[in-house]
Amino acid sequence: MDCRVEPGNDPVADSIQRFPMIPPFSHLIRLTRAGFVLAREGVFALVDPTPLPGAAQLGLKLARLLERPTAATGAGRLSAALGRLGSSYVKLGQFLATRPDVVGIAIATDLESLQDRMPPFPQDQAEAAIERALGRPLHVAFASFGPPIAAASVAQVHRAEIVTDTGRKQVAVKVLRPGIEQNLRADIQAFFFAARMAERFSAEARRLRLTEVVATLARSVTVEMDLRLEAAAASEMADNVKDDDDFRVPTVEWDLTAHNVLTTEWIDGTPLSDRGALERRGLDLPKLGRSVIQSFLRHAVRDGFFHADMHPGNLFVDDAGRLVAVDFGIMGRLNEKERRFLAEILYGFISRNYRRTAEVHFEAGYVPPYHSVEAFMQAIRAIGEPIHNRSAEDISMAKLLTLLFEVTGLFDMRTRPELLLLQKTMVVVEGVGRMLDPKLDMWRTAEPVMRAWIERNLGPAGRVEGAVEGAGEVGRFLGGVPELLAHGARIAAQLDRATRDGIVLAPETVAGIGEAEARRGHGTTIALWVIALLLFLHLWR
Description:
The chain is built from 23 helices and ten strands. By secondary structure, it is α+β, with helices and mostly antiparallel strands. It folds into five domains: 11-116 and 182-223, no CATH class; 122-177 and 226-242 and 249-266, 2-Layer Sandwich (Phosphorylase Kinase, domain 1); 271-458, no CATH class; 460-492; 503-541. The strands form three sheets. Strands 1-2-3-5 form a four-stranded antiparallel sheet. The protein is globular, with a radius of gyration of 29 Å. The two termini are 41 Å apart.
């Protein structure tokens, strides 16, 4: 199946064309190896054979014959298998954890625990890669350079020092694994091949738009393979939070950053994963939990740009008591419409304004207009009321969004990948907040952030600002009116000449038509008359 389309016309095709074409036989070899590992780890035991055709059920039974007796139990089998298959499959698992619509809620929940930890690669390889990327010897770029302190599927991190005008400064140096780009590209192409084959033979695969799912993964991997883009994400978030008192981002050392190397300031803080160390510092853990939740919501709703991997290992508390985030390889972005949608539905649930919550879905175009607002409001109430009857520590905004997306599916709301990423990130953030304060009141924590955004953007101040922006648009339009009128006058004059005198072609054009007609016959004559017609249309511009 040829999926190649002109660049810019199809985002799926554009994602495919970022990767070099590989013969289908190579894909089959890679996928066969992956299938063998999945079978050995007992992953196919998770598949319900009931809806499958007879041939597929037979294949499933044969695959289960390869299952190891010591394979993991439950949904953990998939995480174990993906970890054994390596970097690409770990990334695939992490990505599928954000798509419960594709893999189901149980598997998605299991994949959230997939650990992206790998053995480090040799120090000399890391140093050689950094020297090639920066174009200078390591001892010139860094005053000292230590062994790896953390290693994942795509990159590993080293602690180093640089010399500045004020003395030595500690930095963190992230370097991509050698050969990782080639391996990831080959595996992504195999994923595309498998998705295309599935869509060819399965209506369910077409409904889930598996090629688009892989295309989204491909775009994410492309970003992660260029550490300059991660540096840009960190820089953008640093600009967004520069006035926040409780959250900050490490500064990027741009002179020591390249395609496969990222250097940032070293964070000498306490990781949120070490509760004992936080308690020994005498930190207010409930306040810290509220700060985690409110920071995330501010980034998502106020800025439209949020850290989508806020697990405890990526969050630290510095000496001033501020949260510091690291690792900006996975980021989420929401446009203005999505931010308004998120703010209003959450605030609608907080205030129990279910009609407004329902109306927002219709205004955003997420629920088709042929459905009833009243019927949808009733479904919204069925989600919201049980939540308000529970104690504060039992309320989960992430679970609320999960239930909401399930209900909206009944009303033909199409999957919104950006909102699913937000929801899955909220699961992680809530987990961090509850770890710090098991009795965390999510509604009371979220309410000031939601209310502030709504008052700022949908209240009187927002309306005034919108009116000013609208007036600016009108001013720009009025400024262009003279040019529009002059252009209209030219068109009218050209139309008048064309209708009065007919179309006059240049002599060389007429001669060209005659010669071409003699040479190429009737088919070419038609083509040349098309050219003449285009010349005529040109007079109308």
